[in-house]
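Ticket reopened. Same input as before:
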Amino acid sequence: MSAEMQQANQEMEAEIGKAPPKETSLWKDALSRIVKSKTSLIGLIIITLLIIVAIFAPLIAPYHPVDDGSVIDRYQSPSAKHWLGTDALGRDIFSRIVYGARISIQIGVIAVGISGVVGVLLGGIAGYVGRWVDMVIMRFIDILMAFPSILLAIAMVAVMGRGLTNAMIAVGIVGVPHFARIVRSTVLSVKEKEFVEAAHATGVKNGRILFRHVLPNTMAPLIVQTTLSIGTAILDAAGLSFLGLGAQAPKPEWGAMLNAGRAALQSAPWVITFPGLAILFVVLGFNLLGDGLRDALDPRLKQ
Amino acid sequence: MTQNLLEVNNLKKHFPIKKGAILPKQVGAVKAVDGVSFHVRKGETLGLVGESGCGKSTTGRSILNLIKPTEGEVKYKGQNIAHYKGEQLRQLRKEIQIIFQDPYASLNPRMTVEQIIEEPMRAFKVPASERKPKVEKLLNVVGLSPYHKHRYPHQFSGGQRQRIGIARALSLDPELIICDEPVSALDVSIQAQVVNLMEDLQKEFDLTYIFIAHDLSVVHHISDRVAVMYLGEIVEVGEVEELYKNPKHPYTQALLSAIPEANPHKKRDRIMLEGDLPSPSDPPQGCKFHTRCPFAEEQCKVEHPKLKDVSTGDHQAACHLVNEVVKEPVSG
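Engineering reply: fixed in the latest deploy. New output:
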């Protein structure tokens, strides 16, 4: 190594010493941009609250969601004793909503987990392999998309049998096309990048290229889609429960609570109003955060 | 006598132009590389120059089989590798490597430097106990430090990233490295460092380079022999000093006259080329250069010139207007 090169290297060292290592700048940038935008901050707060409520449900809820309550206390309007009133069986609605947060998170995570894993695999393979494989997978996805999502979910639950588990599976499958399409399109652009070509040129096998090089670089749009999908999944599952196909009584699921309160809509509107509001806010929270993330992770906004 | 490590014979790559969504019909082809032949001797550097879109990079990628050649032979150590597929092709990766032009696009942003450099070894099942020390050694070799290995590409400058790319290419101990414009994305001050590094490495590891570039002075500096490409063909090839001092093909002359001169008072005869590069999907008949050649004659529009010896040394050009020099058979 020549003397001039060594000098150049020393200069380079000095330059490296100056810049402190920034480990995950993408996510740090994203977080700071989310906090700056008011709407996505509201979304983040709502979701954080939902998670806290779900974790500490036994500490927050004044009553047991199912066992506490007698028919004598039925349809009580909101009061100091029952903040949000009671339902047809005298159960405290506030406590039921608090415990319902657990079910909603469970639905969101499991259903979107199913959509995510299946969608990423199908979309990733379709985009990476291309040609007839792409054709077959994407036409199958088109068929799934041709059905209105709630109708498809109802049909699937009708075949598999009612219940919360089946409802989650159905909602998960209905969400697959969105993930598959987004992953496919991102994979199509990432696989043309030079580092993928470099991996081919160094003898890395296809499976590893897909999982180590291509898919990790599709994360940004995937995170956005996941956040938005959790909101939709909670809404869809609540819809199934409302129709009596999802969570069954006496589970404190918000959609099922809406259904139970339907009969007393005029005499005791609080029974149906508060679970409805809970669904509204949670779905709103995920949508706000998802939109915020979309902007925050947009590389075009980077300076 | 030095033997030919690589021989390329009549290599062609035509990209089909298709029309129709349901049953696509081929309506034409972009002739990116159209009958290229050359050879590379062991231990030398062959410079491949030409303007953008003349097929330099496509030639490089076709040799590596990253793009399947349409036609022709690529003989590596006597074996035709143009039709290799699957595992046979993968095994060849140990021998022929590539350094890319864009040091920003060619490193996976989600992998650390160590993961990037050891990945080729991992692909060929080198045990971790050998991989880790080798990564540190390679980092030293390319002028970085072992403590850089846990950093991500975005924490490095362009020149440093290119060094990482070079370390990756060296990790499998290849014999031939195709350098696809390795310095054209870098600052001029950094270019010299990287070019010097590549020269040092060539001596240290006995490497053979195909150096693709459009910067004629860089090519002059690093190459032993130079091939000039125009519209998918080689128009002139020869020893670097001979070719730079005594260019025969009008295109080479025009290219060389465009190199900026450090002395502003020195008189220069610049040959200005008129017109644009013709489309490679519809190249001119006869000599492909005749549309822009200041000396073109009737013959040039009809007959396609072949490479012929134009001096007693190692120097060939494809031009009707240059007289062929009959070489004495080499004795002994």
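Chain A touches chain B at residues 1-2, 4-5, 8-9, 12-13, 15-16, 19, 21-23, 25, 193-195, 197-205, 208, 212-213, 216-217 (CB under 8 Å). Residues 14-23 of chain A have pLDDT under 50 and may be disordered. Please confirm and we'll close it.
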